[in-house]
Specification:
By secondary structure, the protein is mainly alpha-helical. It folds into two domains: 1-47; 51-160, Substrate Binding Domain Of Dnak, Chain:A, Domain 2 (Up-down Bundle), CATH 1.20.1270. The chain contains five helices and no strands. The chain has helices spanning 3-43, 51-79, 84-108, 121-140, 142-145. The chain is elongated, with a radius of gyration of 33 Å. It starts with a helix and ends in a 16-residue tail after the last helix. The relative contact order is 0.10.
Length: 161
């Protein structure tokens, strides 16, 4: 018996056993990965929406923000009901803000040929209007909350306390 040959046979046996174990581990990993992918796809609810549904949802969000802004304005008017100068200025400021909102919208989405902004255009318009309304609401709420910092430059905001 050739000692070099038996050593080579032993090495081949070890490599074959190792390759077999590695191959088995590889197949187990593939099976586990497939199981995870299938589980995620089966147990994850489908959330796909059509563009029409997304646009309708964005429109609803805009209308909700519009209603909230009007509520905040009504609350401010009720709080300052005896101050006719303030109320006149509030109405004028709100009218100018509405004009500014339209100009901001036109600047964001300048008039272009039909289809330029794609099928999501209406949705995007409503989302941007909602964003602008929410900024305005946040600004107007200062008159309801007042200025608790004692800012001497707060003007009528400090009267909102």
């Amino acid at each position: 018996m050739d000692p070099g040959n038996s050593r080579a046979t032993a090495n081949e046996s070890i490599l074959t056993t190792h390759a077999s174990k590695s191959n088995s581990n590889y197949h187990q990993m593939i099976k586990l990965t497939l199981l995870i992918i299938i589980s995620v796809s089966v147990f994850t609810p489908a959330t796909g929406q059509t563009q029409a549904e997304l646009t309708a949802e964005a429109r609803t969000e805009f209308l909700v923000s519009e209603k909230k802004m009007n509520t905040v304005l009504s609350d401010i008017k009720r709080k300052f009901e005896g101050d006719t100068v303030f109320l006149k200025n509030l109405d004028a400021a709100q009218e100018q803000w509405m004009n500014l909102r339209q100009l901001e919208l036109a600047m964001r989405f300048p008039e272009r040929e039909p289809g330029y902004y794609g099928s999501a255009h209406r949705m995007c318009l409503n989302l941007y209007l909602t964003e602008l309304n929410n900024q305005r609401i946040s600004h107007l709420q200062k008159w309801l909350e007042g200025d608790s910092d004692g800012d001497i430059c707060a003007g009528s905001v400090s009267e909102g306390k």
